[in-house]
Write a structure and sequence with these properties.
466 residues; alpha/beta; 5-stranded mixed β-barrel; binds 5'-deoxyadenosine; binds iron/sulfur cluster
Length: 466
């Protein structure tokens, strides 16, 4: 099988478009669609691709789930993500009873689990289409099949070696975009379901990435977010291996591109060369998301993270030496099986030592099929909750202090939108990812502007343009 294919679903897009035009004429109105995204930035980017295809078919966007085509792009990283989907599906059933033209599709990570698909086939028979993470590029063909068929269409692939290039995508923002640089994960952290539902690591060819970014820039994009489960191992499995830092240097040379972000970085693969490339580039944002997961070396080993508390701290100190102004953010899990109070104290300790600008904190969630699910000493719910609360207090107190450190300085802000609460204000982001609100005209959306950060309000700034 070829490793790279070009998107070619035009014939199915055309066939579906004809059916939609027919239905629109009958109904005397446009047919609408609504894409609901659960989970991470990878899913958000996939949803832009689904949106691009639906628009090419002639559906018009709607934010309401009363739309004629509703698709849930699901996540399964923690159990509560699954519960949310089941809860909302129940409500869709009633909407479908009222709208005979309504079609319901489910895709994403949750659908790669066979017990989920079985449950939907049994208890949610009104769903029209189910597909997974590996065959999203076949969406148009699957929609066509679902329209022709009178029963649920289910297509889940276990794995894929292919990367399909040139899928149409409809960006949420005209000035910034996510760009996948790799898919899947080979790390098998013992708590994590991602390698099972997203498959093995596959990197895109550097030229395909550069071409996509060039096109985005030609189209008005000034900021890209390079996406991968572990961007630091980008390119290792290519026929002609290329390092992530080499890729970054090439991307930074694209004229007109002003900001580069990336996520997620696994600490075990973060090279000195990457630190050097970041430090010497004006375009690469001073922000690094570096999930620590736990501060206890004993738990980190059971998590299969392949670093220790000490080696993580040493890495942070090298990064900070090279870039003292860099904001570090992280992911932390409490209540991993066997975690003792002493282990948890190590987590609090690493948080105090690193001083993260923000952290996503999670209670451990048992995912069936992962090694941690069958480990002894699962931590009781109330102990987990108590540790979670204490961790959150510590993380937030430090994050507030870190955020305040830029007060009364000037920073470059990429203006993203008119403020939701007060339309006289604009909202934008500093390179370190903090939000800033300031008075200004909406013609500035998509532009990078100098803003004086007059007051820190905890986790964001109020500012004035200068
Ligand atoms: N339980 C809780 N949190 C998890 N994460 C991944 N798997 C689990 C799990 N089983 C968290 C990790 C990861 C983030 C995306 O989600 O912190 O970095
Ligand atoms: Fe999951 Fe670990 Fe891969 Fe991240 S690196 S997706 S936590 S297995």
């Amino acid at each position: 099988m070829k490793e790279t294919e070009n998107f070619d679903q035009t014939i199915y897009i055309r066939k579906v478009r004809e059916k939609i035009q027919e239905a629109q004429q009958q109904l005397g109105r446009k047919l609408t669609f609504c894409v609901q995204t659960f989970g991470c930035q990878m899913n958000a980017r996939d949803s832009e691709k689904l949106t691009g295809i639906l628009m090419a078919m002639g559906y018009v966007p709607s934010v309401s789930e009363t739309a004629d085509f509703v698709i849930y792009n699901t996540c399964t990283v923690r159990e509560n993500a699954n519960r949310k989907v089941y809860g909302r599906l129940g409500k869709l059933k009633h909407l479908k009873e009222q709208n005979p033209h309504m079609r319901i599709a489910l895709c994403g990570c949750m659908m790669q689990e066979s017990h989920v698909v079985e449950k939907i086939k049994d208890s949610y028979r009104f769903v029209d289409l189910i597909f997974g993470t590996h065959n999203i590029y076949r969406f148009a063909q699957l929609v066509h099949q679902a329209m022709e068929s009178h029963s649920m269409v289910v297509e889940i692939w276990d794995k894929t070696h292919e990367i399909v290039e040139n899928l149409p995508a409809q960006r949420k923002y005209f000035f910034k975009s996510g760009v996948n640089i790799m898919f899947g994960c080979n790390n098998f952290c013992s708590y994590c379901i991602v390698p099972y539902v997203r498959g093995r690591e596959r990197s895109r060819q550097p030229q395909a990435i550069l071409d996509e970014i060039q096109k985005l820039v030609d189209d008005g994009v000034v900021e890209v977010m390079l996406l991968g489960q572990n961007v630091n191992s980008y390119g290792k499995t290519l026929e002609h291996p290329v390092s992530f830092s080499a890729l970054l240097s090439q991307i930074a040379e694209i004229p007109g591109l002003e900001r580069i972000r990336f996520m997620t970085s696994h600490p075990k693969d973060l090279s000195d060369q990457l630190i050097e490339t970041m430090a010497s580039s004006e375009k690469i944002c001073r922000h690094l998301h570096l999930p620590v997961q736990s501060g206890s070396s004993r738990i980190l080993e059971k998590m299969n993270r392949k670093y220790t508390k000490e080696s993580y701290l040493e890495l942070v100190s090298r990064i900070r030496q090279a870039m003292p102004d860099l904001a570090l953010t992280t992911d932390i899990i409490v209540g991993f099986p066997g975690e003792t109070e002493e282990d948890f104290q190590d987590t609090l300790d690493i948080v105090r030592k690193v001083r993260y600008s923000s952290a996503f904190t999670f209670q451990y969630s048992k995912r069936s099929g992962t090694p941690a699910a069958v480990m002894e000493d699962q931590v009781p719910e109330e102990v987990m909750q108590d540790r979670f609360d204490r961790l959150l207090d510590t993380v937030q107190a430090i994050a507030k202090e870190e955020c305040a450190s830029l007060e009364k300085t000037t920073g470059k802000v990429l203006v993203e939108q008119v403020n939701h609460q007060d339309s006289r204000l604009l909202t934008g982001r500093l390179g370190n990812n903090l939000l800033v609100h300031f008075p200004g005209d909406q013609s500035l959306i998509g532009k990078i502007t100098d803003v004086y950060l007059s007051e820190c309000k905890g986790f964001y700034y109020m500012g004035e343009m200068i």
